[in-house]
Every structure is written in structure tokens, then in C-alpha cells.
Design goal:
about 100 residues, alpha+beta, OB fold (Dihydrolipoamide Acetyltransferase, E2P), five-stranded mixed barrel, about 15% helix, about 30% strand, S1 motif domain-containing protein
């Protein structure tokens, strides 16, 4: 399926369940998520706790919210489980969104 066609089925704020399938550099980059869809999801480091020990591990099944859909054929996500979210005193959501938009 082409990204342009598939993207029309998703919306910002939509909730999806997925399985964390790669964590290349804990605490540095973010995590990849298998959504059982034609395209994978990605959670940016800015949405995750600073303490990488609190990050979801490979194989973790949890719910995510779609926060961004871009031309890189990737579904940008944030975790909905508070255990996997950035601490409130670390950063706020607008800052995360601004960083994602910038690129």
C-alpha cells in the first residue's frame, strides 16, 4: 500500500496498540513500534522518560497515540501508559511537537 493512501486512514489523536520491536540506543533515540500495519510507528526520545530503565522493552505491548504523520512514511507516536511517558517536570507536549515538526 502506498503511504499517501494509507495515511488517509490515520488521524492525529488516534489510539493504536503496538509492540515495541526495536530500541537501538536506550536513552538516546527512541523506540520503534510494530503496529501490525503496512508502516511502523516511532516514539521519539522526547516522549519517553529520561531514565532509559523506564523505557518499554522489546516485546512490550501497549497503547500509543498518533501525534504526527510525516513524509518519511512513519507514524509518530507517544505512549499512553504513564509508566512510559516523559515526566511532567522534564518537558511539555508543545515542546515535543515543535521538535517533531522541526524535524
Amino acid at each position: 500500500m502506498r503511504w499517501e493512501s494509507f495515511r488517509a486512514y490515520l488521524s492525529i489523536g488516534q489510539q493504536l496498540t503496538g509492540t515495541v520491536d526495536w530500541v537501538p540506543r536506550p536513552g538516546v533515540i527512541g523506540v520503534g513500534v510494530d503496529l501490525d500495519l503496512p508502516f511502523d510507528g516511532f516514539v521519539d526520545v522526547l516522549w519517553l522518560p529520561r531514565d532509559a530503565e523506564r523505557w518499554p522493552r522489546v516485546g512490550t505491548v501497549t497503547t500509543f497515540e498518533v501525534v504526527w504523520l510525516d513524509d518519511r512514511q512513519q507514524i509518530r507516536l507517544k505512549p499512553l501508559d504513564p509508566a512510559f511517558q516523559v515526566d511532567d517536570d522534564q518537558v511539555d507536549a508543545p515542546t515535543c511537537l515543535e521538535a517533531l515538526e522541526a524535524g
